[in-house]
Amino acid sequence: MISKKAKKQIDSWTEKYPANQKSSAVMEALKIVQLENGNCLNPELIQEVADYLDMPGIAAQEVATFYENYNHKPMAKNIIRICHNISCMLNGSDNLVSHLESCLGVKTGEVTPDGLICVKKVECLGACVGAPMMQIDDQYFENLTAKKVDEIVKSLRKEGK
Amino acid sequence: MFEIEIDGKIVNANPGENLITVTDREGISVPRFCYHNKLSVSANCRMCLVDVEGATKPQPACSTPVSNGMRVSTKNDKAKSSQKAVMEFLLINHPLDCPICDQGGECELQDVAMSYSSDVSRFNEGKRVIADSDIGPLIQTDMTRCIHCTRCVRFGAEIAGIMEMGGTGRGDSLKIEPFLQEGIQSELSGNMIDLCPVGALTSKPFRYELRSWQMNAVEGIARHDSVGSNIHIQTYKGKVKRVVARNNDNINETWISDRDRFSCDGLNHENRLQKPQIKYDGVWKETEWDTALVYSTKALLREVIDNKEESKLGALASNNATLEEYYLLRKLLKQVGSDNTDYRLNIKDLSNTINLDSNIKIKDIENIDYALLVGSYTRLEQPMINHRLRKSSLNGATIDVINSMSFNYNLPINSEYILNSSQIANLLARTLKAILLSKEQEIPGYLDKFKVSDADTQLANKLLSSDKSAIILGEHLINSDNSSNIANLISIIAEKTSSSTLNLSETGNSIAAKSTGFVPNENGLDANEMLASKMNAYILLDVYPKYDFHNSVSAINALRDEKTFVIALNSFKDSDVFDYADVILPISSYYETSGTHTNVEGEMQSFSAAVGSPKDIKPAWKVLKVLADLLDLSGFNYTDSSKVTSEAKQQIKQNIEHDREINLINTKGVEIIWQPSPYSTDALLRHSNSLQATKIGQLNTASMSASTAKSLKLSDTDNYLGVPVVISEVVADKCVFISSSNETISEKIS
User: Model's pTM, two decimal places?
Assistant: First the structure.
């Protein structure tokens, strides 16, 4: 169920668009609903968002599966978004991903058993100058090495406890 | 119009056209997958890349608008190498499992790959695999074969009007699938099979049956509704294997409904009647045709022709016989002195019927600017009409609905009136009054008691102000107390506002029945009168009493009378027919007989038999001809059915005169509208297992408002007339709307 509060937030977005084009607000609506639902979407919620915005369920699902920032499984507290596009890849992002996978003991997209960390491979975040790079929340970490990554993970774990 | 050059040839092009439209018109072949002339352009497959002079990169022909003096090469090195490169990319993840793929032989990917790909793949890596999803009993998915052309996605959003398929995920994890695995619900879903350029979406009932080149394609006409969609019937060794759409821009464009596509499943049902049978002392015995026909003739002579006392012969037919069958049966009866013929078996009161002429062509429906839809859910009942209506709506037309229940329309409805039939008649009467007031014309007496409200004036103004308006009357109101009033009011309103009318209460081939005079004249008895008076004999043409008669219990009782001799021509077995008939003659079903279908615009479309009838099953027109010959009647020496057609056509009555008297009645008590599910309207449909397994095929609800349920002492766990109750606030008060594929339990309705 989408809460009244969330609906109000969605309304503030639909107001920006013509009345018969409510579906323009789908990305924001999904984001709002996801935040409210423990950082995770499910088919019922997606359908509800679609109904609320007068659009087909599958069209909302298309959006929700297209973008990395929508989660379809319970999500970790911290999401490490690691870029795997060309500049980062040439600077060894693949090695960093496998390093992260082995030190966390989970594959990309999976959540560590303590629910703290999840690694996601994402497309270019526009910080090629500092490749390889990754993003946690709103913060960029650039010119990464395996050692640097270890430290970041360590500090995340510390904060988590 | 200006000139452009394609492959060195100067051709004409219109501003705004895309290149591919021009190349298609000129017969220049450009390979494509995602482009389809009835769908929007998505330009995502890139297969139609061509070289446009002045452009550095090759351009997709499907989305490149022509411009004056443009020079295009579709076959130079640049174009060819781009097309080949795209082909190689498309084949990277395609499984190339053609030998086990149903699409093999009619596959656009296979055809194009023959010309545009190399014979050895350079791709040695692992291919993508997608798990199949079960999307219902009609369409088989093999999504690993999908090339993401999105034709099925666009078909849903643009043509079917409900977006069901979509592309989820991104990049190499993009999948074409429906949401929530609920399966595809559209009544036009089968067209996705025709549209899919690869073997990702194929026909489930036809799975692993045959290769396309093994079959013959026979042109045919679909007879399940009053549209008469054009189809190709594909046959193999005398059996109908598959039905696909045949293009006719005046009628069905390139689409057909699932009903027309999958009904052929029923032809080989075990329930088909195989041999003539005679009842001796209450026991049915199979016999030869000669014996059965001579037995029938003798009985007709004894009971009717040589009977010096009152002799009464009646003929009743279903609403989906051919024009020739109606004509011959009518002629046979007339020659033995009987005018008792009728096909309107499902109408409670035949003195109160809908008489409304249709005067709009199917293709013109998409050009109207205002439509008033009365008592019809066109989406399920007449899918191709609904498609045109949807197109008109997309072109900007306003659609208003008057009905006793609201439905899941796939087009935007402007305003909706949910009323019972008396209220509908009153609304139309007030609208007529508003129209007459605004035109300052004389108000007839029956309108005196009505006060015109602002809303009525609004409705009237919409009809008056629109240039091309249409009023469409459907089949939901055929048994209401005000049927004829509603039809007559619509007829007068249409006349006063220069609107077109479309009468969709005509279903199957009923217009052919009407035009051949199969409805009784003043000397004849109608269906209800025949059943009420003791007849000596009946000839019944493909009648299944529990589904066809309004009051099946009394009909079966009347036919069962020991003194009544019943000759039943049927294509499928039916226990009630065995109960009341004396002779049963097995007749050909759809596609096994030649004939003519008359659609709602009056278009008479003749078709030949696609396959011969199975052994010992004869086309009904031949049976009737031989029966007439045996009775020594003259004028029945036809060599083939086209002779019957041309004779019948000379005597066709186009628009039958009828009075437009109006005498409004107030309905008392609860009104029941029994609307058979669209997949149970004739015997063939009822025997198509694939259609019956769909959601539409399993419709079974008695919808009523909470207050109606309370007055009937029902809750949503109860059944009403054998149908589960659904409490719904979109049903008019004092109305029960039953959508069901069940037999009508109609003794309780009348």
Answer: 0.91
